[in-house]
Request: fold
Amino acid sequence: MVSIRRAEMQDLQHMQHCNLWCLPENYTFKYYLYHGMVWQSLLYVAEDINSGRIVGYVLAKQDEEDEEGSKLEHGHITSLSVLRTHRKLGLANKVMQSTHRDMDKIFESHYVSLHVRVSNRAALGLYRDKLGYETFDTEEKYYADDENAYNMRKWFRKKAEKQ
Amino acid sequence: MKPAQNSLNNKQSSEFKALVKLLDAKDYKKGLRNTEKLLEQVPDNWEVVSLKAIFMYYNDEQQKGLELAKQAVFKNLGSDFCWHIYGLIYKAQKNYIEAVKCFLQAIKKGEENIQLERDTANLQIHTRDFEGNAQLRHKILTKKSNMIVNWIAFIFSQHLIGNYEIAFKAINSAEQLIQKDQQNPIKKVEMNEFKLYQIQLAIDAKDYQKAKQNIITFKNDITDMVAYYELQYDLFMKLGSNQEAVESAKHLLELQPQNWKYYVLLKKANPQFDLSVYDNTLVQGQLLAELNGDKFRESFLKFIDPFFQKSLPSLFREIKHLYRQKEKLDVIKEAFESYLTSGPIQKLWALMLLAQHHYQIKQYAKSLELVEEAIAHTPTLHELYLIKAKALHKQEKFKEAYEATDRARQLDLADRYLNNKTIKYALRANMVYLSQELLRMFLRDGSNPYELQMIWFELGVGRTFLRLNYLGPALTQFYLIFKHYQEMYDDQLDFYQFSIRKYTLRSLLQMFDAMDNRYSAKYFIETAGLMIEGLNRLKLKLQDNNKVEQKKLTPKEKKQLQKLQQKQEEEKQLREQFSIEGHIYSIELQKKFDLSGEYLLSKLKTEQDIIKMQNQFAQVLIHTNYNNKEINFQAFKQLVSFYIQQNRPLLCVKLLNKLRNNQTETNQIVNHKYQLMIIQYLNQYKGPLLQYIQEYQQDLNKFDADFWKSVEIKSQLDKTIKLHCEHILQNKPFNIQLESNELDFLQEYPTAKTTNPFYTNDPNLEWQNNQISQFQSSQSTQSVSQQQQ
Reply:
């Protein structure tokens, strides 16, 4: 059985481990610590309660500035993954919804952004159909292997409120 | 840094300032050159000598640099500049305790340097010198009390030493300052954090009335309701207001209905609470454990049906916790079997679940039979191959297990999990070379597992090398892991001040806990156990070598020795062309991480060196605790002979308790042997610590006899261990290592002469090469087919 909860600092090393088992985009421990120290409330994990293992996580942060350089508080999903053994259980959806809520309520984010491989159909389905993200633009050769990324956004507040 | 002025003329003084700038700019080469020029004019200026010292330090003359800096300090005790430099060198060496001492001297002797004071205060937190930190933070606050960050740092420092009353008073001042400061208004999220922190502080101070008051008055400032209700629950439980705590837990469940911990909290506050009102899979699954008989059968069938209907492959994990209850096993099995005839898809899942079922109850042959049937039914489901690999692994068919995972991997080459699994099994089959090739597929150009702190991989490689008795490369991997854990601790340095600025003090407190307990993690405990074992073997090898050196060799032995040396020389040459321990990385990288272990071994030339390093790991290991008894035991048992040899009675007592706490059905017999060894040692102890030891002394024969009455001897291994125990009772030596199947490679141990198992006629190498060319060709055909799409 899997429990979804906010990450504690002692989860960080296990989140790093989970990341190394799922994605080719990896970070050193310090980067996890950085997220934990500033935006702990945005970090959620999926824990297998029989084994105590972290089987999925979302690593997220806040930014005060827009890509266009104007001041606009928004969230950003740094990394999200779920172990292959725990797919199809809706875990990614659940950790994402938790972090969305906290970006909205705690940080009063206008929107949340993320990058996704254009070929990753499963993830696109989750972001667009289940979580309400829209494609903002496409970034050429965003990934190390030259694949393009969709830059996607989900708005928490009406775009009119932007100013 | 404040440049010194005394005894320098104007020109020299500006040169001095320029040197300090070079130091800040990290231009150490030019710095050293120019310092030496200046020293020609003023050879007795010890502040300039200090500069030379630090430039030397950064120009690869660490020891000389440190000594010179020390000399400069003692020649000129009154100079804050010299102390500052001396401290900076210690800091660069990561000797933070000494660095703090030097900086405090510099602060005492010098003029105002708020930056240095703040850095020193942060280093004090890093060395967990909370008393010193509180004093320094007070000093900083009195100097600059108009800055809110100094107040927050001060409050936190008082919190850490338990001076809550002072902290509360300071909070009032801080709040007033926040109100007054219109230029830098506090952000809403910062206010949220600050208020949550104040509640936490009141709870820590056990001032529950204040905490309760805070919870009421702060509610409008707090936006993080998860943290809010967690604190509220904690407070109500401490006040004994369980009914109110129940309400807090319910609020938490509204926010996070999938958090199992909150259900546990709810039950804790009200044991009568019926969780079944929460109708979700998590609760239903957990509650299955509490049901029995027909009620269980009915609920179980209802629980598993949706998984079959939606073809979810993860069902087994959801019900695995039920296997602790033997009476449920038949019901589970029958339930799975009932789907064998419900249709082709259901049949597939049923076969897979039954294979997992038989694996779980240790019937590996049956498990394999079922999974083969499932594979024949649907050969494209990767889960099946992973189950097959697990069962084969239990039967010690490591190469076949690798082949099974490799089939899974080929079903989805873009999946890292399957790739990693294949690596794991490749390593278990001693295929280091192959495992690196597999890893390479997911490594970006230029990256490597060591910089990425890929601990699981390092541990796997190290374990494999140790299995092959290839000690240098094995120890290196373990040592690298140890360094990662040290790096982790030092990563904190950047965040103390940062988090004080951001008001995230609750996260900071949690970070202290997590980092102080970072070693209580599965990977570290395994690593430490293996490191100590590896060092033991190194010690034995050394003793062997010493024997060879001391006794006069017969002509025949001389010839053998010559042959061995020749072999080693050949291997050395081979290594320069090709190294099994890191052939996918550049030579520079292999050197940087010392993958051959040459550097590490050069530091382990005597028994004393080895023991010192063992102790480094043992000291950390003995204080760890992880929630898996098997993993704990495997590591702790490595400490037994070490602490006995080191004659450490109190640590032996601690270890004895650790062994007892980590006893399981699986390890009880081996565990008994180690307990026996310790008790025998304690019985013979007669030293000054006797009064602490006495209660652990007992009749060894009775202890042993009682134990064997209570267990059933099932395997050959059990018999061997019983024999060991008899030898212990008679004080006879025995070969301690022959106790698990994992150690079958130790037959030639401890006198194994293998240095590099891969060089001389290794059939594995050919096999691995074959595998590699196979997957390389399959990868290129796949990328072609992708392009065609």
